[in-house]
Amino acid sequence: MSGYWSGILTILALNVIMAYAIFLPVATGQLNLGGAGFQAVGAYGAAYLSAKYGFAVWVTIPFAMILTAFVSFILAFPLLRTKGVYLVLATFAFAEVVGGAILNTDALGGPMGLSVPAFVEYPVPLASAVLVTLFAFYLMATRFGLVMRAAHDDDVVTDLMGVNVRGIRVAAFTIGGALAGLAGALYAHSFSFVEIQSFNAWISIYVLLYVLLGGTQTAWGPLAGAVFFTMLPEALRVVLPALKGWLGFAIGLQGANTAPDESWRFVILGVLTVLMMMFRPEGLITRTMIERLSFRKRRPQLEAVDVAA
Amino acid sequence: MLFLQQVSNGIMLGSVYVTVAVAFTLTIGVLNFLNFTIPTLFMLAGMLVWAFSAWGIPFTPIGPMPWQAALVGAIAVTVVASLLVERFTFRFLKTKYGDSTEHAIPLVSSLGFLLIIENLIRIGYGTDTQRFSGPQADMSVNIGGIFLRVPQVVSLVIVLGIVAGLNWILRHSRIGRGLRAIAENPDAANILGVRANKLVPVVFMLTGLLCGLAGVLFAINYGEVSPQIGDDIGSKAIAGMVLGGLGSIWGAVIGGLIIGLTEMLTIHFFGADTVQVAVWGLLLLSLFLRPQGLFGHHSIGKGKL
Amino acid sequence: MTAQPPLLSLRNISKSFGGLSVISDVSFDVATGKRMALIGPNGAGKTTVFNLVSGFYQPDKGEILLQGNAIQLVPSRRRIGLGMARSFQNIRLMPHLSVVENVMLGQQARAGGVIEMLTPLSFFGRSHWRDEAESLLRDMGLQTYRGEVVASLPYGIRKKIEVVRALVARPKLLLLDEPAAGLNAAETESLTSFLEHISGTGVTLLVVEHDMGMVRRLCDHVVVLNFGRKIYDGLTADVQNDSLVLEAYLGPRDKAASTAREANPHAA
Predict the structure, then answer these.
(1) Is the confidence at residue C262, as pLDDT, over 80?
(2) pLDDT at residue A258, as a whole number
(3) How many domains does chain A have?
(4) What is the mean pLDDT of chain A?
(5) What is the CATH number of the domain that holds B65?
(6) Could you write out the three-class secondary structure of chain B?
(7) Looking at residue A43, what is its pLDDT?
(8) Which residue segment(s) compose the domain that B40 sits in?
(9) Nearest-CA distance B122 → chain C (Å)
(10) Is B99 on the interface with C (CB under 8 A)?
């Protein structure tokens, strides 16, 4: 496998894990706009252990996950008492605080970043992504998953049904945090270097958006969103040169530098977001869609039974 | 004396945050909508006032313009952009289910627009910082030993004037009453004949004006613009808004000024790197401990939060 | 043998919202196994009574007793576990969950342990929870809808699903808030038979309803509220003769008109 494609697979794996990390709180109705902050905690946790103490990957990664889970857990209590727009702002503020704190901590490399000695090849993040995906599907198939989605739809009635809604939300947030920490640790060990500038607000925004685009009602959504977001630049690499010719003529590109083609990917993400929110805010893959697909298989048998009964 | 100079710099800086914070708080107060496009509109105005004066209007034969025309043009485009955002985010909101994330649909849309506008500007004009020379960029006055640059003073005066004017409109005009009715109770307002379809665009137009004004004032004051200016200003403005209390105009003013001051003082005492932690830490604490801010939570649709 | 305490007992319950008194000194009992109706003109406070009993609000004064135990301070979350379940006047199903999933939510109080929470409901083979939910749906004639996402279904169907969701909690006390609203005559008929059948299995019913035909058929006891006060507590058979009740619904008027209205409550 070429270095290029193994790089893409690594990024895909990380994006999938982050997608599920954000998916879990969002599925219960808590929009998390601070994903990058949690990822940074995991990344720096693993990086520090590896750089300072030389621990191997199978120590640093679980440590990173536990650390991030712990931070998420502590944060969840005051955080989940806020609602609506305040919650979104608070998650965003948290990520900025983490970023600012790391920036000022020389032991963590400050603005210069940290080198990470222990390295993993792409099969490790890939396998982790597969495991996380299976875990997410499993979780959504349990009562826990059911109750999460119920809390999203109507937390008052869910409470009346006997569910500790607050507890569910804290749990979802914590598990999501652990997953973000995993993504961060894998990032550290895949790219051998961490700097806080990579874990910025844009990352948080992208991941939230592609999770919402994919759909937050089922475990398929985040997977679809992550795959789309990761593969979009590849698709653009094919389409864009043709487009560029036409546009270069039209805009008369001003300014000293041409912006990297990366920017088109985000314009498209933005346009799709606006369109999706206008026409299908639940995201691309919804419960209805999954039900229709599996129901169609079962229906013929169902009607046969009714006739016999 | 240096300290006082820093304080005055902080207040001047704060006045930029104030305008953007007021835009945020107005939109949240009336529409319960955290409009993430606002910092980008600010950046758009700043970049366009430079682009129009340096390059003219794209897609047209109009070449570089004098700064006055560029200023008007930049604000005009910003207002149009803001109205476009209204058309494609808020206008389309259909609250069908009332579940936990429905309130956030316009917020998410505004994130989409943030990406679109910011990246289109990057594609069109690159990511470099550009120099802009407007009026009287270097003149300053000396008041009691403190140097105040004329553009900054003018900005502060304009900003406070706009805010006072806005407050007056909200309190005493028919439009203002309509907006406050919508903020208080959209359904009742509807029944009472308040035409939301006509008034909601007013909020977005005001948003465009405020951000446009802030953007061009920034360009004039600092002489430099880049596609990144919105990011930083946006965060500080949001912090100012939350500190002051969502929905409160004067809260946004006080909050914005406090943030500007905090920033200057933190840089003075601790160095530039600590600003991020200080401002966002302050915001996070305020959200946890006193989310309604200094002046309380105004007129937000009850029960939505 | 000592008499059983009534299953549900409200004693001198009062509730105000911001100075407006919504329930004023209301007391009544619901005996175990009985079928009771709670009726009254719109705004009388019937749904508020339900909200107080289910714990959505706390009463300002008075006590609520379930099987003799005071529950007014028990958090709403725990009340379903004590044996009561309710449906809602404006349907409150989870719009993005399927019918079966909505019903399975009703089982939550019986399935709350950690192991239960983490056991897949439909992954490898079927689970008994799903089977139970589906069989209950079959009893109500709703089995064809089971995979449908609730948001797309008609009003009458959703009303019935709410009843199933309440039933699956295996409550001792079933609180139904206008279960027949929006149903046509045939649907009301089948619902009423179904509720009679449920009552036969030992479930106590307390039903808020406007359909007097259904009330007369299903409930032998009725409590009437008006402006937050109880104005009648007795047999359904006698309620239409009570002058206070008549006045509450109709204002002071002659008897002939009120009898005609009673007989055909849905006439405009």
Answers:
(1) no
(2) 46
(3) 1
(4) 87
(5) 1.10.3470
(6) CHHHHHHHHHHHHHHHHHHHHHHHHHHHHHHCCCCCCHHHHHHHHHHHHHHHHHCCCCCCCCCCCCHHHHHHHHHHHHHHHHHHHHHHHHCCCCCCCCCCCHHHHHHHHHHHHHHHHHHHHHHHHCCCCEECCCCCCCCEEEECCEEEEHHHHHHHHHHHHHHHHHHHHHHHCHHHHHHHHHHHCHHHHHHCCCCHHHHHHHHHHHHHHHHHHHHHHHHHHHCEECCCHHHHHHHHHHHHHHHHCCCCHHHHHHHHHHHHHHHHHHHHHHCHHHHHHHHHHHHHHHHHHCCCCCCCCCCCCCCCC
(7) 96
(8) 2-126+151-289
(9) 39
(10) yes
Query: C27 and C61: one domain?
Result: yes
Residue B72 lies in a domain: yes
B100-114 mean pLDDT: 87
- CA dist A82 to A77, A162, B153, B281, Å? 9, 22, 38, 16
Same domain, C160 and C43: no
Over residues C76-91, mean pLDDT: 90
Q: Is C95 on the interface with B (CB under 8 A)?
A: yes
Quote the minimal CA–CA distance from C239 to chain A in Å.
33
Question: In chain C, how many domains are there?
Answer: 2
**Site from C53, C79, C149, C170 to mutate, A interface, most A CB atoms within 10 angstroms:** C149
**C38, C159: one domain:** no
Q: Which residues of C touch A142 (CB under 8 A)?
A: 117-121
C97 → closest Cβ in A150, A160, A282: A150
Q: Does residue B132 form part of some domain? A: no
Q: Chain B contact for C17, CB < 8 A?
A: no
Look at chain B and report how many structural domains it folds into. 1
- Residue numbers of B between 66 and 85 with CB closer than 8 Å to A: none
Q: Which domain holds residue A230?
A: 3-308
Q: What number is the average pLDDT over the span A299-308?
A: 43
Instruction: Reply yes or no on whether the pLDDT at B1 is more than 70.
Output: no
Higher pLDDT, B195 or B253: B253
Q: Which of B125, B273, B288 sits opposite A255 (nearest CB)?
A: B125
Same domain as C184, residue C156: no
Q: What is chain B's mean pLDDT, rounded?
A: 82
> What was the pLDDT predicted at B244?
87
Beta-carbon contacts below 8 Å between A and B: 179
Nearest residue of chain B to residue C96 (CA atoms): B97
pLDDT at A193: 93
- Domain region containing C116: 92-170
Considering the domain architecture, whether residues C102 and C209 belong to the same structural domain is answered as no
Q: C96, B96: Cβ pair inside 8 Å? A: no
B100 touches chain C (CB under 8 A): no
Residue of B nearest to A100 (CA): B277
| Portion 217-276 of A in contact with C at CB < 8 A | 217
Would you call C94 and A150 a contact, using CB atoms and an 8 Å cutoff? yes
Q: Which of C170, C203, C238 is the C-terminal boundary of a domain?
A: C170
Q: Which residues of A fall within a CB distance of 8 Å from B128? A: 255-257
Condensed to tens digits (0 to 9), the pLDDT of residues B23-59 reads: 998 888 888 888 999 999 999 999 999 998 888 888 7
**Residue range A65-119, pLDDT digits in tens:** 999 999 999 999 998 888 888 899 899 999 999 998 998 888 888 888 899 999 9
Using the beta-carbon criterion (under 8 Å), do B305 and A83 form an inter-chain contact?
A: yes
In the predicted model, is pLDDT for residue A164 greater than 50? Answer: yes
Domain identity same for C70 and C179: yes
* pTM (global) more than 0.90: no
